[in-house]
Each structure stands twice: as C-alpha cells, then as structure tokens.
Automatic annotation (TrEMBL):
Its EC number is 4.2.1.70. HAMAP family: PsiMP_glycosidase. It comes from the Eukaryota. This is Pseudouridine-5'-phosphate glycosidase. One of its GO terms (cellular component) is cytoplasm. The keyword Manganese applies. It comes from Manihot esculenta. PANTHER family: CARBOHYDRATE KINASE PFKB DOMAIN-CONTAINING PROTEIN, ZGC:136858.
Length: 347
C-alpha cells in the first residue's frame, strides 16, 4: 500500500478507532488491493462487494462471469469495485482476477463467513466468502461508505419461535456503511425484518418508490417513510448519517427492474414448497438460505436465478452512481473548506 493511501486511511473515522484500523493494515492483517488503496487515497468512489454470492449463490462458471460483469458495471459508472473475501487466512479488500477466479472455483468449499466467523477463518488460515455483515465490517474498517449486494438477510419466517435472525441486521445497527440491495430476500419475513431494523435504529430508504421491494419482485406491501429519488439524494443521506456520527448503517432498497421481476405468485409458491422441504430435512442456520434459494431456482426452472443476477447488476449500477455522487459531494465540501481557510488567512 502506498504511503499516501495509508495516510488517508489513518484519518478515517469509521467503525473502528483510526489507530486500530491503521494498525491492522500496517501490520499486514488486512490486504487492500493497489487499485482500491489508490482510489481511497485520492478520495475517489469505491464500492464494496460481498463474495458469498460468488461462492454460494450460483454454480461455476456462471458465478465468475457474474462477478466480472458486476465489477465491470461498477467501473463503467465511475467507481472502483472492492470485492471482499478471506483467502488463506488473509482478509482481502479488492480482488485480482486470479483471486476472483480462485474464489469462484472454490465455490462452497469456501466458508460462508459472517462477522462471528472472521476470527476463526483467519486463525485457521482458511478461505472465507464474506456475507453482508462481514463485508460491512471490512468496508467500514478502511473507509468504504457504499456496499452493493443482492439482498440482505433478515428475520426468518417463524423467527418469533426460532429466533433465527440474520447478523446482517445487527451489523446494520452498528456499522456506518450504506447497503444498496433489492430489499430483503423474499424467503424471509419482510415485515418483521423491517420492525427489527427500526429497533436497531437503521434508516431504511427506498429508491424511486414508496414501497419496500421484495427481492424478486418490486413490491412487498410494506411502506417506507424515507424515499430517495437520485444518487445525489442518497449521497446527502449517507453524508448526514456520517457527520452526525449516528454509528448505524443505512439500507437503500432498489426495486428489481420491471422487465426482470418474477411472478410474485409463482415465487411465493416455490418459497412455501422450499420452506416445507427445509423443515422436513431439518436444514437450519446459515445453511438454510443457500438451500432455499437453490430450491426456489429449481422449482421455478431457473427464473429466480436469472432475476437474482439481473437485480445484482442493477444494484451495482445504482450503487456506483451513489458512490460517485458521495465522492463528489465530499470533494466540493473539501474545496469549500479550503477556500474559506484561504480567505481567513488573506483577511
């Protein structure tokens, strides 16, 4: 990492204390790619990307092709992609093409890594594909404010009995990163998930709509009070959240494009069938979501996977534009402060 990048990272007031963050990077506990490092040092737009969707979301080589296409979309729209993963026990923020291909070929042999699993995967020098919670943690560590994913985890159906609640929600309640997603995976309990996020103090915003999307479909029936209509709106929201030091993340829900929206009834029927199978086979915990998504895809004849890929690409486009708008906002504020300082000296 260049000295200028390290200097900038040391001044970032993110989730960790600056000295802690700087120490981890300086001691080699975390590897930041040269491209991401340079972008951060210059104040350019960077978008964090998770890696579980690569390892557990779809088969090889479709997973590699999708990962490359998503990174290309981010670059085309003016931002630098920073895919996050743990390789040989080393947390990596920004992957080379070789590392991306390695992760794709590892597939489910890479451990699905949430925040709770980070220390174990690092200590055992294992390979980990980061979920939303782990990706948010590492993004915040180095000062990346925007993170794109497909859909976040949430409160599972019948969660009031099982207490099965994704760590994505608690991470949003304690890590100041904006998560751009197509809402909550519709295999989950969306109303209870939104209630839980409210309890965690998380601002939930919807993009160009008043209704929270349901991952595969544009609408869930749940209304949201915070609406944003442009990347600039999103940038101002993120900037205000950071300046106020609220300490929480923001969830910006982007509906799947209409042309890719799956039939709500067809998807719901497939979900109910998959849920029954999961209960019959006693599939629970972090194995449940990959199983359900895979079964729903099989039952719908591949329609749900096609929709999944389409919404991830759309989220990447929107997320890159938000990251660029945020970088531009911060640059203008920095320039204005510089002008004021110069005027004060001149006076």
């Amino acid at each position: 990492m260049s000295s200028s990048a390290l200097s900038r990272l040391s001044n970032i007031h993110g989730h960790l204390h600056p000295s802690d963050s700087n120490s981890m990077i300086g001691e080699g506990l975390v590897k930041v790619s040269p491209e991401v490092s340079e972008a951060l040092s210059c104040g350019h737009a960077v978008v964090a990307l998770e890696s579980t969707i690569i390892s557990h979301g779809m088969p090889y080589p479709q997973n590699l092709e999708t990962a490359k296409e998503v990174e290309a979309i981010v670059r085309k729209n003016g931002a630098v992609p920073a895919t996050v993963a743990i390789l040989d026990g080393k947390p990596c923020i920004g992957l080379s093409m070789e590392e991306l291909e390695r992760l794709a070929t590892l597939g489910t042999r890479a451990q699905k890594t949430a925040r709770r699993d980070i220390a174990h995967v690092v200590a055992s020098r294992g390979n980990g594909a980061t979920t939303v919670s782990a990706t948010m943690y590492f993004a915040s560590m180095v000062g990346i404010s925007v993170f794109v994913t497909g859909g976040i985890g949430g409160v599972h159906r019948h969660g009031e009995q099982t207490m099965d609640i994704s760590s994505d929600l608690t991470e949003l309640g304690r890590t100041p990163v904006a998560v751009i997603s197509a809402g909550v995976k519709s295999i989950l309990d969306i109303p209870r998930t939104l209630e839980y996020l409210e309890t965690q103090g998380v601002c939930v915003a919807t993009y160009k709509t008043n209704e929270f999307p349901a991952f595969f479909t544009e609408k869930s029936g749940c209304k949201v009070t915070c609406r944003v209509d442009t990347p600039e709106d999103c940038a101002r929201l993120i900037d205000a959240n950071m300046k106020l030091k609220l300490g929480t993340g923001i969830l910006i829900a982007v509906p799947i494009p209409k042309e890719h929206s799956a039939s709500g009834n067809m998807i719901e029927s497939a979900i109910q069938s998959a849920l029954r199978e999961a209960r019959d086979k006693n599939i629970t915990g972090n194995a449940e979501t990959p199983f359900l998504l895979a079964r729903v895809n099989e039952i719908t004849g591949g329609a749900s996977l096609a929709s999944n890929i389409a919404l991830v690409k759309n989220n990447s486009l929107v997320g890159a534009k938000i990251a660029v708008a945020l970088a531009q906002l911060r640059e203008r504020e920095h320039s204005n402060r510089g002008c004021l300082s110069f005027q004060e000296k001149d006076d």
